Amino acid sequence: MSGGLFITLEGGDGSGKTTQAELLGAWLVESGRTVVRTREPGGTEVGVEVREIVLHHRGDIAPRAEALLYAADRAHHVATIVRPALGRGEVVIQDRYIDSSVAYQGAGRVLDPEAVRGLSEWATEGLAPDLTILLDLDAASARARLDSARTRYDRLEAEASEFHDRVRGAYLELAAGEPDRFLVVDAASPVDEIAAAIRARVTGLL
Ligand code: TYD
């Protein structure tokens, strides 16, 4: 993709993805790269509306409808933001991508993970990240971090700890299955240590 680099960050709620995305972005900009920082859901105007539904709708959303909403957000985001940036040779640093759907809608909501993945592969015409950073944190520590940072939980954060345990298990399985694409870091480590590990891995890709 003409020099572009697609980096995604994954992990449970409260695992520190946003902090690490900021640090990595700043470091890449200092080293002269053009960086696009974005996220799913909600990386586009349409996506902001979808995000409002999936995270804050009062009442149930059928699991398959939820999976389709995330896939719809992703289709529009990839077509209008991510692919154009990669085509210009830029670095895209993105909070959450297809692995989130496989972990949350697949393992969390208990839908067939391969069907969930297939939906997103269709939505994105098969765009895969060059690197996925998994910030791994046990559900109890993640919950403690969220409790100190939040006054109100969104629909996914409010799920029981068994849900978040399944999400974490699914992430670790995904990472074990694709070690070349994933960097797994212990999200309980100091922020600077995590950032250094990420920079070391990204350096090898530049
Ligand atoms: P995120 O933006 O990381 O939440 P916050 O900004 O509040 O930390 O993610 C929003 C939620 O959406 C998160 O709980 C995970 C969930 N999610 C899915 O269930 N499936 C998906 O495909 C994506 C992208 C996110």
What count of domains describes the coordinates?
1
Order of helices and strands: EHEHHEHHEHHEH
- End-to-end separation: 13 Å
- In the CATH scheme, the class would be Alpha Beta
Short description:
The protein has a single domain (5-203), classed as Rossmann fold.
Short key terms for the protein model shown above:
alpha/beta; 5-stranded parallel β-sheet; Rossmann fold; 8 helices
Description:
It contains eight helices and five strands, in the order βαβααβααβααβα. It is of the alpha/beta class and 206 residues long. The protein has a single domain (5-203), classed as Rossmann fold (3-Layer(aba) Sandwich), CATH 3.40.50. α4 (98-108) runs antiparallel to α5 (113-124). The chain is globular, with a radius of gyration of 16 Å. The chain starts with a strand and ends with a helix. The chain binds thymidine-5'-diphosphate (TYD). Thymidine-5'-diphosphate is lined by residues 13, 39-41, 55, 70, 95-96, 100-101, 104-105, 154, 156-157.
Task: Please render the helix and strand layout as text.
Blueprint: E1 5-11, H1 17-30, E2 35-39, H2 45-56, H3 63-87, E3 91-95, H4 98-108, H5 113-124, E4 131-136, H6 139-149, H7 161-177, E5 182-186, H8 191-203
Helix pairs in contact: 1-8, 2-3, 3-5, 4-5, 4-7
Bound molecules: thymidine-5'-diphosphate.
